[in-house]
Amino acid sequence: MVWGRIKNAIGLGDPLDSLPDGPTRLPDYFPLEPKGCEKQSQKLFKCLSGEATDKARDMERVGFHKSYFPDVKVGPMDPKAAEAVAQDPENPDFPKAGDNPLDECRMFIANYMKCSDRALGQKRNRLLQETVRVQDEYRYQGPTTSNTEE
Predict the structure, then answer these.
(1) Are the beta carbons of 15 and 111 closer than 8 angstroms?
(2) How many CB atoms within 10 Å of residue 23?
(3) In 10 A of CB 22, how many CB atoms?
């Protein structure tokens, strides 16, 4: 028990132990690339643009993806692929319903979070966490409802 905490403190432990339970998610500070974490960041970005994106596209193709908007109904992009998945759901080459594309990059996310949590507290990375306030005159106001029928 104590040995595991010591290993995690000095960086020898399993980085997956530090991930929260539940579905794999990217941290709130993503896509920051703190100084000193370039290697872990680039590995994560490469995985997200490669394996995770491919899995997400496969899920969209067979209709297992979810919409970000509640009023949009989703369906399969490729009906033939959806039919093939329905006929053989145990095939390991096909995506499963409820899969998370980020699970492909779980180890890279853990390494990125471990490094970034340490590096973002350093003085040289302080600028990355500052929030920027946009002046009112530069903010997007949306469509105006002015009377244009004069």
Answers:
(1) yes
(2) 9
(3) 7
In whole angstroms, give the CA distance from residue 81 to residue 63.
Answer: 9
Q: How far apart are CA 64 and CA 75, in angstroms?
A: 8
pLDDT at 86: 79
Residue whose entry in the numeric block shows the structure tokens 């959806």: 82
Share the mean pLDDT of the chain: 80
- Cα–Cα separations (whole angstroms), residue 135 to 132, 139, 143: 10, 7, 19
> What is d(CA 24, CA 106) in angstroms, rounded to the nearest whole number?
7
Predicted TM-score of the model (pTM):
0.69
Alpha helices of the chain — where are they, by DSSP H? Answer: 2-10, 38-47, 53-62, 79-87, 106-119
Q: Half-sphere exposure of residue 144, counting CA atoms within 13 Å on the CB side? A: 4
Residue 75 pLDDT > 70: yes
Share of the chain above pLDDT 70, in %: 81
Residue that has been written with the tokens 């998945």 in this structure: 85
